[in-house]
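The data layer described in this paper is built around a simple, fixed record for each protein. We quote a single record here, exactly as it is kept in our systems:
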Amino acid sequence: MSEYLTTAEVAELLRRPVETVRYWRYVGSGPKSFKVGRGILYARADVEAWIAEARNAATTGR
């Protein structure tokens, strides 16, 4: 698997619509992302860290 993911790949991984991932980016609540030219990429490690943080928040009630 690639070290970097597109918005569509992140959406597929999270089983969410692409529009939701774009919205999270817009409001700053999603995984870290960065621009390359006109495209947006996500480092796989950042996406996995974001998922782990969300899972921990859900189990600790934060």
About this structure: The chain has three helices and three strands. The chain has one domain: 4-60. Residues 44-60 form the longest helix (17 residues).
